Amino acid sequence: MMKAYKIITTILILFISLESNAQDMLEQLKTQSDTASIPVFGTFKGTRIINGQSIETRGKGTLDVLISHRFGKINSGGYNLFGLDDSSVRLGLDYSVTDGITIGFGRNSLNKVYDGFIKGRLTHQKVNGFPVSATWLSDISINTLKKPELPMTFKRRLRYVHQLLIARKFNSALSLQLMPSFVHRNLVATASEPNNLFALGIGGKVAVSKRVSLTGEYYYRFGDDLPGYNSLGIGVDIETGGHVFQLHFTNSSEMTPSGFIPSTQGDFFDGDIHFGFNISRVFQIGGK
After folding, report:
1. How far, in Å, CA of 212 to CA of 116, rounded?
2. Is 207 part of any domain?
3. Does pLDDT of 244 surpass 90?
């Protein structure tokens, strides 16, 4: 009788334990299911990393006013106040037609370049779901600098860039982005320089506080005997409410992807570094 009692007690304990574990597993699966569709926001603080674009798009009806400066080379010396006597400016307007589609327009003082782009979000990283966010960018720019020495046409002045931006926010501190890029220029400086160019960029953000992050960006160009240098930049993002201030050092003076990817002329490690900044101010002008 005592033996039968022990067996029944053991079976009841096992049953209760199994039921408890099953409930824990169901709760865990329910929690994972609930968070699987939650998108990850704030991969980067701004729509730019340094010179290039991040995967970020603004909400529908948002107008983003961007003012960007690049000063002269730091190694130009004290007479030129280490580059501060020279500067180029890009004034830009980005408008989000929807939460996932942004169009933009800008004017650059360097080479008097006008640029426009369309940017569309393809996927969104999820908390317990899809591992990355992806955005497509197509950019067109036109050089309007007078070149009387060359028989210029409208077509010759055009340049195009297409990029797939893929990013992952690993945690609240670290985000990384890859940027496979294709550049086409209708007119290049020399016959040996290719009209088409492939490049792979990598960028990242490391948060040091809630409002301050360190950033970096590098573009490797594929090809032999390419003129110039690969674009490199390091910086810091400071967020203050509706503003994002981006301060950085880069070997690129151009601020459009069709300019800085193929035509960076400075050697970062030889001191050909430009101090610069981007300032972003966001306005809600359309319906959400």
Report:
1. 29
2. yes
3. no
The pTM score is 0.85
Neighbouring C-alpha atoms within 13 Å toward the C-beta of 287: 0
**Is 37 within the bounds of a domain?**
no
Is 269 inside a domain boundary?
yes
Domain count, the chain: 1
Residue 35 has pLDDT above 70, yes or no: no
Residue 251's Cα: distance from chain center in Å? 18
pLDDT band at 285 (very low <50, low <70, confident <90, very high): confident
User: Domain range for residue 232?
Assistant: 47-284
Among 207, 169, 201, which residue's Cα sits nearest to residue 182? 201
CATH number for 234: 2.40.160.40
Does some domain include residue 7?
Answer: no
